[in-house]
Design a protein that fits this description.
The complex is a heterotrimer. By secondary structure, chain B is mostly helical. Chain B has eleven helices and no strands. The longest helix of chain B is centred in the C-terminal third of the chain and has 37 residues. In chain C, helix 2 packs across helix 10, helix 3 runs parallel beside helix 6 and helix 9 runs antiparallel to helix 10. Classes of the chains: A alpha/beta, B mainly alpha, C mainly alpha.
Chain lengths: 255, 276, 253
């Protein structure tokens, strides 16, 4: 089966031709269907830029991204996105937000209602359908964002440090939630984070990136069971191995 | 959707604002826009003459306006009127600011003062200051006093209100910290309350300056023999449109300068807010 | 209930202070009592004007001019504001011109409007339209431009086309800003209508006030000013309430 996402020699520089700052070196990466891949690296290594390119918000300076074998030319519903800042539409209720994608596709109202119900159930927010985002906590908002992305039935889901704005406890709760949802939905996920712990908890593979201009330093396949124990020795071993590699890169940024 | 509206990639990249233009191009565009505006104006006034659309005195070209202004400047007339307007604004604003800041600080800091002054202010606030101008004229006649008094009245309110807000919105934590370091009474006031309220006070002053220029014109329409407002209204009698427009532009420049001055003061006094 | 009461008490206090000063002055003879009308005298003058129908006539005239001028300006400001916010080259060209015209006080153009449109209704309406157009236009354009990129991106990755973006993201997101702009514009219209009616008018609250000056009738001036103040207050409260209802969802800044 061909890879779901094919990132081929993708590079990105910002600014005018003669004074361009390279943000991303040449990246080659494949993500298989149903795989959960984490992009991990120090600040400014370009991992968010790479995600934005896959999402279609930015164009690459070099290279190409293929999703389902088709080149990416801009944002589209086959690539759902979950943002760090939630990006919920404040004038719509929770159900209004979740049904936004189906609404754009002119799906009938009854079908939309069913979709909203299903996904709100999945993220554990059934009773909050008529609330406005301003009435929700950070964790709840992000769950709505996840439901919204899933409700549109995308081919892949891209997540840009989605739990970065949450406190430590809520963060772990949502990691558990995401892990559980993934066991149900089996989506292809590309997930950006700077937390090693989070990456080991969620990913099938962890891609460690170098500092700017970002390139792939090392890829760690994570051979842990589907339901992971954060305190198991194998888990901690992965954390230690990855930490060592990441520390090398962080030290370079500090110089 | 028309294609000259932002495209999708542009919207995705930089939103509705669009990407920032480099300095040089941005400046060129601004100058170009103003030049285009003047060119369009000239074209329209020319078209009025050529096509005999209506009496050309209603739409003189920009060169006529400029010529009129320069002419009056050379003959010395412009300065007389400009000085008259400036004097009224300066006196009126100065008095209004002094009263506004003085009473504002007192009212913000001392409850009894506030309980006396605030009801009066609240009652007068919804009434447009312009409505009060005739009252001033009735009280003190049509001369300078009524004009300056009116400007004082108009500028008092925004300055008073922002000063009170500035004083009252000081973080109580700051006050407690200062007091635990030994600050009391006058010292506390001068060293903590005043500097903390300064940004709001300056904002009020900026609003006051704008308001002063906003309302000076109308008071110079009625019973004045000097001033830019007088020039504008006087032009009505003989359809001296270039004079009317010219005086208006000069007034605009004055207002802009006044605003810029307060902004400069703001930047110097508020350096701690924006150290960069 | 407490909110209204809290505002009524200072008002009553001010009213009492006014009565004290005015009656005290009349009794002590410090200033010509005509110049400092008591609340009773003002009330009587007001009732006289109301009874003769004059007050209503002037009130409606002013309101009519404001409504028409503001209405025209609002429609223009909305249309152009949206257009300019969504067309970058247009915005970059118009911005400098607006910066150029903005410092000139609108009242400075009042005589121009009288010259152009004569002394009738048209000049007042056009003047109100001109005065309120610029601030509303600028504020609406700013409100639209403030729409967060991330919302556009979120909608696009859910399948929105450019038309969808405008209809379903830009407009709802900009709505609070638009409503505020309209409220401020209306307030500005009420502010300047008085001045516009001082000259070259034979009806309207501004004219009523000016007449009070001409015939040395300060009580009439106060009546006019108070009615204006009341009108402004009322409309402002109404618009604020509408604003609050429309944007219950507004995120904390």
């Amino acid at each position: 089966m061909p890879p779901k996402i094919q990132i081929q020699r993708v590079g990105k520089s910002f600014g005018a031709a003669d004074r361009a700052t390279p943000a991303l070196g040449e990246i080659d990466l494949d993500v298989a269907e149903r795989e959960f891949v984490c992009l991990l690296g120090p600040s400014g290594c370009g991992k968010s830029t790479l995600l934005n390119i896959v999402a279609g918000f930015l164009g690459p300076t070099t290279g190409i991204v293929l999703v389902d074998g088709r080149p990416v030319q801009g944002p589209a519903p086959d690539r759902g996105v979950v943002f760090q800042e939630y990006a919920l539409f404040p004038w719509l209720t929770v159900s209004g937000n979740v049904e936004f994608g189906p609404l754009l596709q002119s799906r009938p109202a009854a079908e939309r209602r069913g979709t909203v119900e299903r996904y709100l159930n999945l993220v554990g927010l059934s009773g909050h359908a008529d609330k406005f985002p301003v009435q929700l906590s950070g964790g709840m908002k992000q769950r709505v964002a996840i439901a919204r992305a899933l409700a549109n039935n995308p081919s892949v889901i891209l997540m840009d440090e989605p739990f970065g704005a949450l406190d430590a406890q809520t963060r772990e709760v949502l990691q558990d939630e995401l892990s559980r949802i993934q066991r149900v939905e089996h989506k292809t996920i590309l997930f950006v984070t700077h937390s090693i712990r989070e990456a080991v908890y969620l990913a099938d593979r962890v891609v460690v990136m170098t500092s700017a201009p970002g390139q792939i330093k090392q890829i760690f396949p994570v051979k842990l069971p589907e339901v992971r124990d954060r305190f198991a020795p194998e888990f901690t071993q992965y954390e230690a191995d990855i930490t060592r590699i990441v520390r090398e890169e962080v030290a370079k940024v500090r110089e | 959707m028309a294609s000259f509206l932002s495209t999708m990639p542009e919207l995705m990249d930089a939103g509705l604002r669009g990407a920032r233009l480099p300095r040089g191009r941005s400046l060129a565009l601004r100058l170009g826009a103003i030049a285009a505006f003047l060119a369009l104006w000239s074209l329209l006034s020319g078209a009025v003459v050529v096509l005999r659309l209506f009496n050309p005195i209603f739409l003189p070209g920009p060169w006529l306006v400029l010529g009129n202004v320069l002419d009056m400047a050379v003959r010395g007339q412009l300065w007389v009127h400009l000085a008259a307007t400036l004097e009224r604004v300066a006196l009126g604003f100065g008095t209004g600011a002094a009263l506004g800041v003085g009473l504002g600080l007192a009212a913000g800091h001392l409850k009894p003062v506030r309980y006396v002054v605030e009801p009066l202010v609240e009652m007068l606030r919804p009434i447009p200051p312009l409505a009060v101008l005739p009252m001033f004229i009735v009280w003190v006649g049509i001369g300078e006093t009524s004009k300056v008094g009116f400007i004082t009245y108009a500028t008092f309110f925004p300055i008073f209100l922002t000063t009170v807000t500035g004083v009252r919105q000081i973080d109580p934590l700051l006050l407690r910290a200062a007091q635990s370091l030994g600050a009391r009474g006058v010292g506390l006031f001068a060293r903590v309350i005043l500097p903390a309220a300064l940004p709001d006070i300056l904002t009020g002053l900026r609003l006051g300056v704008a308001l002063a220029f906003f309302v000076i014109v109308i008071s110079e329409f009625i019973g004045a023999e000097h001033g830019l407002g007088y020039l504008i209204n006087d032009g009505r009698n003989f359809f001296l449109v270039p004079q009317m427009l010219g005086a208006a532009v000069v007034l605009g420049l004055l207002g802009y300068a006044g605003n810029a001055l307060v902004r400069l003061l703001e930047r110097r006094l508020n350096r701690w807010q924006h150290p960069a | 209930m407490s909110g209204a009461a809290a505002r009524a008490v200072p008002m009553l206090g001010a009213l009492a202070a006014w009565a004290v000063v005015a009656h005290g002055n009349a009794w002590l003879g410090i200033v010509n009592p005509v110049l400092l009308p008591t609340p009773l005298e003002v009330g009587r003058a007001g009732l006289d004007l109301a009874a003769s129908g004059e007050l209503i006539r002037h009130f409606l005239t002013s309101l009519g001019r404001v409504a028409q001028g503001f209405g025209l300006a609002a429609v223009a400001a909305l249309g152009l504001g949206l257009l300019v916010a969504m067309c970058v080259p247009l915005r970059l060209m118009i911005e400098p011109v607006i910066e150029f015209v903005r410092p000139i006080p609108p009242l400075a153009f009042l005589p121009m409007f009288l010259v152009w449109f004569g002394l009738g209704e048209a000049s007042k309406i056009a003047f109100i339209g001109y005065t309120t157009f610029f601030p509303m236009f600028v504020a609406i354009a700013a409100g639209v431009l403030r729409v967060d990129v991330v919302l556009l991106r979120a909608a696009a990755s859910l399948g929105a086309s450019r038309a969808d973006l405008v209809r379903r993201v830009v407009l709802p997101a900009a709505l609070p800003g638009i409503v505020v702009a309209l409220r401020v514009g209306f307030g500005l219209a009420l502010f300047v209508i008085v001045g516009a009616e001082f000259m070259g008018a034979d009806a309207g609250l501004g004219h009523l006030i000016m007449e009070g000056r001409t015939f040395f009738n300060p009580a009439q001036i106060v009546v006019g000013a108070l009615v204006l103040g009341l009108l402004g207050s009322l409309i402002n409260t109404l618009l604020l309430a509408t604003e609050r209802r429309l944007i219950r969802w507004r995120p904390e800044a």
